[in-house]
Amino acid sequence: MKSSVIIFPGSNCDRDMDVALKKFGFENEMVWHNDAEIPKSDLIVLPGGFSYGDYLRCGSIAGKSKIIKSVIDFANSGGLVLGICNGFQILTETGLLPGILQQNKYLNFICKNVFVKIKNKDNKYFKKIKKEILELHIAHNEGNYFCSKDELKSIEDNGQIAVTYCDHKGNDDEKNNPNGALKNIAGIFNKDKNILGMMPHPERMIDPFLSGEDGSLFFENLIESL
Amino acid sequence: MVEVNEKIAIEHGLKSDEYKKICDLLKRTPNITELGIFSAMWNEHCSYKSSRRHLKKLHTKGEQVIQGPGENAGVVDIEDNDAIVFKIESHNHPSFIEPYQGAATGVGGIMRDVFTMGARPIANLNSIHFGSPDHEKTRNLLRGVVKGIGGYGNCIGVPTIAGQTCFDESYNGNILVNAMTLGLVNKNKIFYSKAAGINKPVIYVGSKTGRDGIHGASMASAIFDDKIEEKKPTVQVGDPFTEKLLLEACLELMAGKSIISIQDMGAAGLTSSSIEMASKGDLGIEIDLTKVPCREENMTPYEIMLSESQERMLIVLEEGKENDAKKIFDKWNLDFAVIGKTTSSKNIELFFNNEKVAEIPIDFLAENAPMYDRKWIKAKLPKENKFSKDQFKPLKLSDCLNKVLIDPNIADKEWIWDQYDHTVMGDTIQKPGGNAGVVRVHGTNKAVAASVDSSATYCHAHPLTGGKQVVCESWRNIISVGAKPIAITNCLNFGNPEKEKNMGEFVECVEGIAEASKYLNYPVVSGNVSFYNETKDKGIKPTPSIGGIGLLSNYKKMMTMELKNEGNYLFVIGKTEGHLDQSIFARNILSEFNGPPPEVNLFNEKQNGMSVLNLKNRNLIETCHDVSLGGILTAISKMGIKSGKGVKLFPLEGLVNKFEYFFGEDQGRYIIEIKPENLENVENMLKKDSIHFDKLGLVEGDKITYENDIKLSIDDIKEGYKKWLKEYMVN
Hints:
The complex is a heterodimer. By secondary structure, chain A is of the alpha/beta class. Chain A has five helices and eleven strands. Chain A has one domain (2-225): Rossmann fold (3-Layer(aba) Sandwich), CATH 3.40.50. Chain B is of the alpha+beta class. Helices cover 35% and strands 23% of the residues of chain B. In chain B, the strands form five sheets. Chain B has a seven-stranded mixed β-sheet. In chain B, helix 10 (240-254) packs antiparallel against helix 13. Chain B is globular and about 85 Å long. Classes of the chains: A alpha/beta, B alpha+beta. The A-B interface holds A 9-10, 12-13, 15-16, 19-20, 34, 48-50, 52-55, 108-112, 137, 139, 141, 201, 203-204, 206, 209-211 and B 147, 150-151, 154-157, 239-242, 244-245, 331-333, 417-426, 428-429, 431, 440, 555-556, 558.
């Protein structure tokens, strides 16, 4: 399976993602934002970081960068596009995913382990994961998901909510909401479920010596489903 | 142009005899640009004029030392051609004036020092000291500093893996922000600042030069008064995004062979970087200031030379490599300008609009900089307190423990490190809040442990003992994760060196550090000195911060402080005499602030540490935690809180009073957890090596219990311990 990780100036989880993809069997290539074309891939990943410094709205400049047109074409033709953290922010900026990511409710950067509940397994990203609840890791300042009432209704009706923040038992209530995200949303799909954006970093949880291993389940499923 | 005279020189922070020396050396009056350059190079921050003669006493050599003090950072060998570049540096004065930017640029500056040498930063640490929690400024300063450190480090994508936060009223008017960075480099590809060769192009890369930070280094060499807020414009503004680009661009250029020398523009900007490169290479340097990329209009030579705008580097390149280098910086959208060349004149010569605007022999600025042998007084060892039985009578162990665990200097600091990205780069295997932070050496079985420590209370009570103690504490923290200690970096934060008492504190702390680091073979390879941490005549407690690193040759054998299994034994390695003077218990419970700090016995320290490593290497211990602030009971509680497991403490056998035993801060101690089947083996080994140990208790249940005195559930003590800082910050 072939994957491509796009590097924007200011991306900083690109290497971590490269390590994770390769560990689980992807042939991964790194693609510079100024390249016009993306090599033939089964999966494109927009990694975490602070693209262009995130001095404007997070992800907004990356959302207009040269490479993005190819990403959009790839996504629109049904290709798998995964955006983690800043990558999720970029996907909302391009309009490939609905809604926006605002500053965290308590106005602080948050770096810690969280639990998320898988809300929809009828897609390539979560299909064969046996667990319902994953322990993942977040590290962000703008992860507070928000969208309009109409948008929310439509993403709920279409099963577009991918994962929600919860406790280890799966309670996805306000008490277990680290950043104020609407409906505890930690990740969403597009309508066709080929695009996934999520704030948690599975690539940081691929080894028992790191913060945990549930990220491995994510990548194992991904390579199997493709 | 401004006419230079003594008054203007004094406004630049120079003393009148220093000004006279400048005129004598030059055999003329300097112009304003030249005066600015002298003032920048001769201030305390850049010249180390009060500290230099004492810093020579430090132990700086060792088998693993590749580069000791004097470069951008120290370098140590960690085998297989890998080396670690590391250093700690202060950014105290700017952080008090503008906490966010001050702290952020402190982090940016130290990372540049590390990647200037060709290393990719792999971990950040910090030691931050604030005034009393009751002081009106403390909360906002803490909030700003933490956000600044996070804002910069998180954006660059380097994990912040450990740190230390202290509160003490002596920092009410002068907070301390000490930032440390570790970088990984191939030991055959280290870059140095020494220029070599004549007519080599001098290149400016990075951000444009603005008017920010002019005289920053001079500001950091002066005491504060009521008008300190007016100094805000001397604080630099950080741009972590540009630094990230600069990091990647520099590392890309360094992969080739075109760099002769490279130096970041830190304190005193273009002035100190150009002079240092030329001075080390025994060369001259010629710069055309018209070619320096500026972001503001009509900047004068004086302003360009003294700006401390961030994220800039100076490079001496091989001739003919300019275009290749430029391509890399163009790719990363960074400024690139050939601004001058190396010369044989041994002078710094500056041109602006085709006119020579300054010419100074380099040795006037470097070797001939003033060096002082300041007067100092030796501190006496304070008399020990004799605590009477009556003083302990009304106290209950469990109440005391509850109170100690919410002491601001003990209580959990999660509120702080949750705001630092500590997991980016995917190699952090021990996070903040443990004995030390640990990161793997990417793609290998090795890992590097790092911690940062200070003990201002002990240093204040007796500087010589305090200096020794803080080195020992660092050594213990590294050992507690199972790593072999390698070397340290020190950040020496002190008051006004022109006062004999403060100078004495400095001299004796340095001597203490030197003695301990020599004995433990734990050399100092880099560091900096920050004097004049004083406001309106009130100085800080002497605060040397020690950043230590160690190597784990197999990261899978790393130790943590979480208790592992029910029924395992807990031992205390090292003797507990019950030293309460200067302890948290004495200050917080008995309100006793006098007395000597705990004695440091270097022989025992070394023996005990080596025996812990020895036991660990034979897989005989499950858990390890050093005993420091708050004594045994605090250490046990933290181990319990981290794991959710309880401890049953055995009845005490010796003659030491239970309060002294459980809260004493004697040095050289560790708590280790042992499986029952290894018990005999461990006892025999410790006896054979003549290591003192006490059988402390068993891992049992979910409570800490001791006879009829203590029965505290881990959940309950955890609540107070975890809550203090969070509640403090929202109030």
